[in-house]
Amino acid sequence: METTATAQDRQPSIPHLRRQGSATQLIVDDRPMLVLGGELHNSSASSLDYMRPIWERMVALNFNTLLAPISWELIEAREGEFDFRLLDGLVHDARRYGLRLILLWFGSWKNGQSSYIPGWVKRDTGRFPRAQLSDGTAEILTPIAATNLQADARAFAALMRHLRAIDGEQHTVIMVQVENEVGILSDSRDRSPAAEEAFHSAVPDELISYLVQHHNDLVPELRNHWQAAGSRTQGSWPELFGAGPHTDEIFMAWHYARYVDGVTAAGKAEYPLPMFTNAWLNYPGNQPGDYPSGGPLPHLLDIWLAGGPQIDLLAPDIYQPNFAEWCAGFTRRGNPLFIPEMMPTDAGARQVFYAIGQHDAIGTSPFAVDSLQDPAQTPLAASYAALAQVAPIILAHQGHNASAGFLLDADTPVVTHLIGDYELEISLDEVFFYKAEIGYGLVIAMSRDTFVGVGSGFRVRFRPRSGSGRIGIESVDEGVFRDGRWIPGRRLNGDENDQGRTWRFSNKQISIERCTVYPYE
Q: What is this structure's pTM?
């Protein structure tokens, strides 16, 4: 007879993060998972009835995960009284449709504002202090006040405790976002009396120790400010980092990081799922306060790493055109890439290949996906269908420098990547009188001489990584993967293969192809 202990031992571990080579993977039910996700509109998941017609459409659009807000105001409308019926319903319905969930905790802040806090917190400004800006008090909880943190952390801990009770074995919920796009808007920092006192007091020893320990590899923006002020190891915030909005932002980043870390720690004590927080990005030329000052941005990465050790990753919400630059910025210092918000448009459908292929992303999640209607007319659905086929291959090779992702257009018509023994020149596809205007995709080295590609509108030319000689194309097959097994279709040659000179992907659809190459003199 099987003992209880043996049965428990066979339960899959709870979702967690694990390193594979240089990559960080999300492990769900003891296997790596590629999140092909989508985030709902902010208010959609606040009603189970509203969500009922949405679930089936999300499955048809090829999502495997939905990002759904859970707000403080709805679970603790009265202090100390918790109502988790909404959470129970969301988990139940996600299971029914075979989807995973990532919960977004809209607690003290959402988009820098405190609009999701319960009414009893909103009304009691004495007990739950607000930030003050240059032009007066803001309706924003200050991260300086311990009472604010304690109330938020208590509610979040209750949420995670209940989640473990209902989902600790089935793992419908695989990650949790803590707060949303934190930071001060309309000013560079909080100017309340408590904040003023903290700003002109000594910088905490924990941060100074971190700066000293990581002096040589700090992000350049932070290191430059510290060095310009003399690389001091004691003093107030202006004394360590100089005067100006940049120091205001560093100060706010520390206090937001400590606050979010405290909420995260309280939740992990109940149920230690992977937890992250996300960032509203700064546009070029903007100053702190034009965007949420103190949020987890690349130039503040070290402040957040020092102040938020319980936070597993810092995630960008990318709506700006320079997608590749933001992906690179958020992979500094070993931070794993996960994109909880991005465009659900044609551009977003292309960008998912880049994030996953080039940066070993845990996953991607365009925003407002419940607005998408017809799968046949939704480019993102086609992208996710192709990526779902190759997900086992992607996951098996992450972290081993075996893949490349790319975005091609008139400004960037060609890129070069080194994979294994080869240099891959990847360019916009062209043949005879045709030339693609946009190309995108990813390429993975399955073995020394065999590659799998997925995407549209590009071609690949192979060269030796070093030494002399040439590389020829032995064969190219289009096909599909079913349950991780390659099923070949047409053998591509002639015009479809540029007479054997390049590996081509037409811009008429997203293709999956396998190419084998060989060296010759």
A: 0.96
